[in-house]
Amino acid sequence: MEKTITELRVERLASGLKDGEFLLVTDLKNVRYLSGYTGTSGIVLLSSAKAYFLTDFRYVEQAKIQCPHLELVVHKPIVWDSVADLLGEAEVLYVEESNLTLASYNQLKSRIKAEIKEAKGPVEKLRMVKSPEEIELISIAARITDEAFMEICGMIKPGVTEMEIARELEFSMKRKGASHTSFDFIVASGPRGALPHGVASDRVIQEGEFVTMDIGAVYQGYHSDMTRTVAVGEVSAELKKIYDIVYKAQMASLEAVAVGKTGAEIDKVARDIIQEHGYGDYFGHSLGHGVGLDIHEGPRVSAASDTVLEENMIITIEPGIYLPDVGGVRIEDLVVVEKTGARRLSLSSKDLIVLS
Ligand code: ZN
Ligand code: ZN
């Protein structure tokens, strides 16, 4: 029988472990990535020879169906007792240092002989490069987002609140098959547009303002992420100007995306353009990030990122300018890195949409 994708992922990780070494995977997104399991209680424990899935009795039937490639262990009341049994005389246990709590660490440490070491994100590294199936799911999430955005444009007008827009977007995405929203939507109008993370509020939208919407859907566990800024009626020359600069920076950095370049190189393209126009101080966040089972994952696309882009990574490109007390603009596309460059998954128009 042909091996499943989860089986292959487990094999790849296991092949990096030496005799006497185990890897403990506790981050639920990583657990899902390796097991296919979608429940809320589960741990994967791997060695070069063994692959266990530990859960409690509530999830046994689900685990049997979702992860037949792993050896199912119904754990003891304290899960670390079972981990200790399985480890036996093992010498090293790698743990996910950014996920395992200090309390869990202490409980583990008191029960096992193995030395506990930081795993340094081996599963996250695998997750950066997407399989065709993952790309398909993220594309569907992006399409749902595009369609919801198109619908909402018909509703945005003076007198409507940011919250009403956010709520309608959520309904719309769920009607189209999304299980969740990717995050609490950012709907930032007028001066609130200067807040890069202005979650929708009760503010009433006025004539002559920009509305920035940062939105996304989750489809079968996979996220999408897109931002558009639209004008409500005629906006000031300054707002139009910053829109054009962000647009230019966004297009240029999209164009720069290529296999073999680093996140920092792509970030620099957008940052240089915004700086040249005198707004460098108003673009205070990184250019983008990876997207997948998490809304923010590797690779980072920032000035500090030396991660080299590979084929089938999925990243966002999202420059912005935020002027305190005036307003802001961000334009964000979700793209797949391909041999020929970036292929956009966000297909909504980026020409300034003027609603009235
Ligand atoms: Zn976003
Ligand atoms: Zn984003």
Structure commentary:
By secondary structure, the protein is an alpha+beta fold. The chain has two domains: 5-127, Creatine Amidinohydrolase, Chain A, domain 1 (3-Layer(aba) Sandwich), CATH 3.40.350.10; 132-355, Alpha-Beta Complex (Creatine Amidinohydrolase), CATH 3.90.230.10. 33% of the residues lie in helices and 23% in strands. It contains ten helices and 20 strands. Strands 4-3-2-1-5-6 form a six-stranded mixed sheet, with helices on both faces. A four-stranded mixed sheet has the order 8-9-12-20. Strands 7-10-11 form a three-stranded antiparallel sheet. Helix 9 (237-256) runs antiparallel to helix 10. The longest helix has 22 residues, at 132-153. The chain is elongated, with a radius of gyration of 23 Å. The mean pLDDT is 97. Bound molecules: zinc ion (ZN) (2 copies). One zinc ion (ZN) binds at residues 225, 289, 316, 318, 332. One zinc ion is lined by residues 214, 225, 227, 332.
What's the helix and strand layout?
Elements: H1 5-14, E1 21-25, H2 28-35, E2 43-46, E3 51-55, H3 60-66, E4 71-74, H4 79-87, E5 92-95, H5 102-109, E6 115-118, H6 122-128, H7 132-153, H8 162-175, E7 180-181, E8 186-189, E9 209-215, E10 217-219, E11 222-223, E12 226-232, H9 237-256, H10 263-276, E13 288-290, E14 297-301, E15 314-317, E16 320-323, E17 327-330, E18 333-338, E19 341-344, E20 354-355
Parallel strand pairs: 1-5, 3-4, 5-6, 12-20
Antiparallel strand pairs: 1-2, 2-3, 7-10, 8-9, 9-12, 10-11, 13-14, 15-18, 16-17, 18-19
The chain binds zinc ion (2 copies).
